[in-house]
Amino acid sequence: MHKLASRVEQISPFHVMAVLERAKYLQSKGFDVIHLEVGEPDFIAPRNVSEAGCKTILEGRTGYTAANGLPELKKAISQHYFDRYETVVEEDRIIVTPGASGALLLMASLMVESGDNVLMPDPCYPCNRHFLLQCGAQAKLVETNAVQNFSIDLSSLDEYWDGNTSGMWLASPSNPTGAVLSRDYIESAWKEVAARRGHLLVDEIYQGLVYDGEDFTALSIDRDIFVINSFSKFFAMTGWRLGWIVVPDWAIEGATKLAQNLFISAPSVSQYAAIKAFDKESLKECEARKEEFSERRNTLLEGLREIGLPVVAPAQGAFYVYVDVSGVTDDAMAWCLALLEEKNVALTPGADFGVKDAHKYVRFAYTCDQERLQEALSRIKLFINR
Ligand SMILES: Cc1ncc(COP(=O)(O)O)c(C=O)c1O
User: One biological-process term from Gene Ontology (predicted)?
Assistant: First the structure.
């Protein structure tokens, strides 16, 4: 008898996979499917990064690097924090990882004991729960709502924080809601968490993609806050599998030990190439794409309002809008599948991100051009009015 570890059973599959599979099938049959379910930019790495990647391979710089990352890349990341966010982040506090996913696994391994729980908002990025599970710990989802911008009500923390709570994980901008947390909010969250002797992690993977509100780093608030980031989103380098975590001074040694053991090193080609992500031309390219995202966001918010699906939370960042469809269905998952079947528009059901109101929500990712977005909106309008 073959038996998988029992923790595998606790990992829920992504519902969006059912959508994606069906979307691919329909496409293979010649249907014109519009993909608004995909959580990755429809752009590729900046030109200088791609060129540097090719050069790195041809020059054979393809071996392991230092476990916590190439010193030149860490220097560039540190400089970026200073130039763009006026924040001093010493290079030795930066550990380069295989994507933010690697950083999340490292974070869970570094800070969470077996039997612990970690607070996070409902809805949030689903893999967080599963990284904790690998460490024998659990996510404890805290109810939020659109009116409060899907952020945890800090005055209710005592209801959720118990003897086994080790900390709180937040993300700003957020996946799936696009919500951006304010500086005041992060300061208050840190105050509450520190008072309870917990750790605070802020996932800043969508940093740079803020259209409304302050684009800042939680590292500017306190050097004991953990921050993770990645080249996947602003730099459009999802498949390069490169991210990083910034840890407090007292955690550098432990984090380095874990990085050595979990990863040996992040991909070397990606690391050499990513140094070029911070040069002037690359940043200009990324800024232009941010503008494009911003225009798409306006189109989507306006279009959703027109078709009777108003967005309550402002979705100030990332490339997502989390939309309440309870006015037109009582089962968002079934609605997504029917929309795909009848109008060939693919969305992600809320069930992938949360529990409480998941059946009411769908996530739109504006990762396709304006024309396709407009077309998707027209199809959804027809679908609702059918
Ligand atoms: C909030 C959040 N954190 C982390 C990740 C992992 O990203 P990656 O491993 O590509 O850097 C994602 C991916 O979509 C995400 O949305």
Answer: amino acid metabolic process
Ligand 1 centroid distance, CA of 101 (Å): 6
Mean pLDDT of the chain: 96
The tokens describing 237, both together, are 């380098």
DSSP letter string, 262-282: HHSSS-HHHHHHHGGGGSHHH
Domain residue ranges of the chain, discontinuous segments joined by +: 6-44+282-384, 47-279
Q: In the prediction, which pLDDT does 297 show?
A: 97
Q: Residues 26-71: pLDDT tens digits?
A: 999 999 999 999 899 999 999 999 999 999 999 999 999 999 999 9
Q: What are phi and psi of 67, to 5 degrees?
A: -60, -35
Fold of 6-44+282-384: Aspartate Aminotransferase, domain 1 (3.90.1150)
Q: What is the pLDDT of residue 174?
A: 98
What is the identity of the amino acid at 134?
Q
Ligand 1 neighbours (beta carbon < 6 A): 39, 99-101, 125, 171, 175, 203, 205, 230, 232, 238, 243
Question: DSSP string covering 292-323, please?
Answer: HHHHHHHHHHHHHHHTT---SS---BTTEEEE
Ligand 1 geometric centre to CA of 308 (Å): 31
H, E, C per residue of 91-111: HHHEEEECHHHHHHHHHHHHH
Which own/partner pairs from 26-35 qualify as long-range (CB within 8 Å, at least 24 positions apart)?
Answer: 26/340, 26/341, 26/344, 31/344, 32/344, 33/340, 33/344, 33/345, 33/346, 34/344, 34/345, 34/346, 34/368, 34/372, 34/375, 34/376, 34/379, 35/346, 35/367, 35/368
DSSP calls for 152-169: --GGGHHHH--TTEEEEE
